[in-house]
Amino acid sequence: MNNQPATTEAPILVPNNSLLTATPEEGRHLAVKMARLIIKLTQPDAQVRDELRTTYAHDPMMLITIGQTVAAEFATIAAANNYWRHDTLS
What we know:
This protein is an all-alpha fold. The chain has helices spanning about 25-40, 45-55, 60-80. Helices cover about 55% and strands about 0% of the residues.
């Protein structure tokens, strides 16, 4: 059961409303955070997420899928950051 109060506010899916990061490392952390946010949006019940965690923790294909989700988020962030290339590298 979801014990969260009902809200009409849209959830924040892009922290700070920006995909821009100073480094690829920061971009990777943002990708992980965004992947976690979409999982929370998809399954808002924390108890259910906790129960499911034991299932996917032991399923190699589910773990690979999680990695693919983060990779897709990271690709989007990398593109938004022009792959961290600066004009001085041209």
